[in-house]
Amino acid sequence: MNPYYLHCSCRPTSFFRPFFANGAFRGVSNVVLQEMVPGTFFTIPFDPNYKYSEEPLKCLDHIKNMSECPMEQERRKFQSQPYVRPVSAIASPTAPMPTDGSPWRRSCQPNTFIKLNWRPDGSSPGHNIITFADIRPGGFHMTPFDADYAHSIAPLVCAIHHEDMGQCPMEVERRINQGILPSDIEMSLRAPSLDRSAPLSRSCEPNMFMKHNGLSLIIKSVKREAIPKGTVMTLPFDADYKTYENPLPCVKHLGNIDACPLEKERKRYAAQKKKVAQA
Fold it and tell me: How many C-beta neighbours within 10 Å does residue 246 have?
């Protein structure tokens, strides 16, 4: 996809996600933020330093009247005020590094962003790291969360609010969008699971699944709608569930495990195996 034909918007339909491995840039993919029907334009977000632009923004959704674009309104307001070079907030020293291999922590108040370089054929040979706020001594480079952060099943980890994520406005928005609260996550952790390495419960009718994104495993919702508050988050059983020696801990059938169709298959398989062994 040639980025020169992609427009920016205050309501983007997609965004570019850089991939890292061991702290090194490996490539980029274009991720859609909504269902793309025929005739829909692919648009990407403005760079995080859009307020510093001396030129008016070109928002595809407000191309006929840019004064209606909320980000252009913010830019004009910022440009009309005396310039004061921003100083970034201090990140929590205990904030962990991202699990996607990125060498920079994420934050709701980023001081740095990744500017991708493009060739005329649309390929990306690399990236630049642009800082738009002074980093105090002892501070960290902090990049923005991905544009689809509100749809993340996993909790965000903000470098500034790591010790109390309830104070991070983007994590609060994510929780509201997902219809879940920390108590719901604790509820799922207390439910029976196969082993300690798989803290999420299992079910014959799971509402989540794991997907490999090329670098690591991510958890995605099976359904398009948000998971209601109070719902136990469940994953499918492993493909070899029939070989388990103990009854399956299916959350949906905890009160009557014999009603679980997968448990019935496991028992039937165990009976056949025993019959063959005795023959």
Answer: 7
Count of other CB atoms within 10 angstroms of residue 69: 23
Residue 24's beta-bridge partner residues? 21
Distance CA 108, CA 171 (A): 9
* CA distances from residue 73 to 21, 55, 58, 80, 191 in whole angstroms, order as listed: 38, 13, 12, 11, 48
Q: Spell out the per-residue pLDDT of the chain, length 279, in tens.
A: 334 456 889 998 888 877 777 777 777 777 777 776 666 777 888 988 888 888 999 999 998 999 999 999 999 998 998 877 777 777 777 888 887 777 888 999 888 888 777 666 555 566 778 887 788 777 788 889 888 788 777 888 999 988 888 889 999 888 877 754 333 333 333 333 333 333 467 888 887 766 554 444 445 555 555 566 556 677 788 777 888 888 888 888 888 899 999 999 999 989 988 888 887
- Which distant-in-sequence residues (6+ apart) come within 8 Å of 274 by Cβ? none
- Look up the pTM and report it: 0.55
Helix (H), strand (E) at residue 116: strand 112-117
